[in-house]
């Protein structure tokens, strides 16, 4: 029988890495990911992410549910849309989204990612 998996609310033990230079828009942000669970088929993942102030380009091939634990981010779509989310708020970024992830205040979120086959 599978066991219940606890999801940490901090990535304190995770290695911080810089955002890839080819995606960087502003600042010199680093980020850390502490993945707590992946299903056997590697289609579903969840854990905690932390990021520093800065902005970078994103292209989602996965669907991602996020719950902000700390900070504030602005997500700008290539279609001109703009969403600002802060600690305590939840949202979904659908597969196919392209735009800029802009961390306005050091941020931390819980994530659950589903990567469709294909």
UniProtKB/TrEMBL annotation:
InterPro entries: RmlC-like_jellyroll (IPR014710), RmlC_Cupin_sf (IPR011051), UGlyAH_Cupin_dom (IPR008579). Pfam families: Cupin_3. CDD domains: cupin_TM1112-like. Gene3D superfamilies: Jelly Rolls. Residues 40-111 form the (S)-ureidoglycine aminohydrolase cupin domain. This is Cupin domain-containing protein. It comes from Lysobacter hankyongensis.
């Amino acid at each position: 029988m599978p066991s219940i998996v606890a999801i940490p609310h901090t990535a304190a033990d995770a290695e911080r890495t810089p955002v890839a230079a080819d995606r960087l828009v502003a600042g010199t942000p680093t980020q850390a990911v502490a993945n707590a669970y992946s299903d056997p088929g590697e289609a579903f993942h969840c854990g905690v992410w932390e990021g520093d102030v800065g902005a970078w380009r994103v292209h989602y091939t996965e669907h991602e549910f996020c719950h902000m634990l700390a900070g504030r981010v602005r997500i700008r779509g290539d279609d001109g849309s703009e969403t600002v989310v802060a600690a305590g708020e939840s949202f979904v970024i659908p597969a196919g989204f392209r735009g800029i992830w802009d961390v306005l205040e050091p941020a931390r979120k819980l994530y659950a990612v589903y990567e469709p086959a294909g």
